[in-house]
Write a structure and sequence with these properties.
- The chain has three helices and eight strands.
- It is an alpha+beta fold.
- It has a single domain, classed as Cyclophilin-like (Cyclophilin, Beta Barrel), CATH 2.40.100.
- The longest helix is centred in the first third of the chain and has 17 residues.
- The termini are far apart.
Amino acid sequence: MTIDRRSFVAGASAAATLAATGVARAEDKLVNLDTVYGRTVIKMRPDIAPKHCAQIEALCKQHFYDGVIFHRVIPGFMAQTGDPTGTGMGKSKMPNVPAEFSKEKFVRGTVGMARSQDENSANCQFFICFAPARYLEEQYTVWGEVVSGMEFIDKIHPGEPPKDPDKIVKMRVAGDES
């Protein structure tokens, strides 16, 4: 197969634009996180956290996250959810996932997996960064990035726990809207 220079440059330019804009491609695995404010779309990152992405996907298929509150929301830092007890101490029936730390940056819209002091204790809880949190890098697993709807995450009520906590209405892998 031969590629002429013009096709190569056009393809490289398109790839660079996609990478720079964060726009999802058809082959990307997306998660739709619905709140009362609207839909937030998360692009999963199996290239850096395959086990975490598989765990999130399995939990979405079980409808595990439906109705779960955002139990820890710190303005300027992050919104945390995924605990079925709403206390920050709960987990799913699935086994914990070993750490998949990377050099990915924790910036606005980064989705990371919450854990205890044991770096291999991630299970079902995750957080979405409101702002850069560089001190988390290489200590927490990045499994996704918000590609649209971050404005809806910004509306989530703050608190630890919030007085009137917001909930995930529905969370599904795109294409599985059951």
